[in-house]
Predict the 3D structure of the following.
Amino acid sequence: MNMSKNSENLNGKDTNQKGKKSRKRTKLYAIFAGIFFIVFLVLAVLEVRNILNKRNAEKELEALRAETEASQPAEEEPQETVEATEPEEESQFEPLPEDAAIPEKDIDFEQLTSEVNEDIFAWIYVPGTLVDYPVVRHPTEESYYLNRNLDGSTGYPGCIYVDPINAADFSDPNTVIYGHNMRDDSMFGSLHEYRDRQFFDAHRYIYIYTPEKTLVYRIFAAYEYSDIHLLYSFDLSKKEIFQSYLDQIFDIRDMSANIADDVEVTADDHIVTLSTCIGGKDNMRYLVQGVLIYEQ
C-alpha cells in the first residue's frame, strides 16, 4: 500500500512539474510573441514614417523644380551698340558653344535659404536627366545630408550635397557632388544613363547656378570607380598630382566607361564630379565628370 501511495505521489509530482514547465513555456512564448509584436510594430511605424518623409521630400523637391521652370533662353532683339568708356575685362573662357546655351531658371536663393533650408547654396541641372535640384552644403559636418531631407527629416531621398571640404564657390580643382541612386531614377539615379554612349554624346553639359554666377561644365567622363573619398585620396591642390589624376581618367579602358576624346582637361582647369551608388556594388561609385568651360 505504501509503495502504491509513493508511486501515486511521484506521478503527481511529475504531472505538477510537467504542468509548471508547460505554463512557463507558454509564458515564454507569450513574452516572445509580445516582444516580436512590439518590434514589428515599431519597425512598421518607422517604415511608414520613412515612406511619408520620402513622399513629403519628393513633393517639396518637385514643387521647387516646378518653380524654377528650366527653359532655353529666348532670342534677344538686337540693341544699339554703346561705345564703352572702359575696356571690358577679357574672359578666360572660349565663347559658349551653340548647343550649350544656358537654360534660364528662375531661382530665388534668398527665398530658398530663408524658407526652405539655409544650407542651399547652388542649383544643379543636367538636361536629358532628372537631375534638377538644389544643392546643399553643411558648414562643418561631412555627409550630413546623406540621409537628411531639406526639411530636416531623416531617410530617403536625402539631398544633393557637397561636403564642407569643398569651397562653396566651386573654385576647387575638383568639386564633388553626391546624390543617392534612387530606383525611380530621381536624385542621381538617372546619371546611369551615361553608361550608354549615344546618351553620353548627346547630353554633354552640366549647369550649376549660384547666387553670384552660372557655371557651365562639359561632361568628359562617366565610369565606375572605387568608393574612396576622392578629395582625401588625392591632393589636387598640387598640379602634378591633379594632372596625374586626370591622366588616369583618360587612360581608363573599361568597356563600361565613356570618355570623351574631343575634350582636353588639364591641371589648370576646374572640374565637377557627380557621384552616386551602384546597385549591388557597395564598394563602388558611378562618377560623371565635367570640366568648367564657361561662367557668367
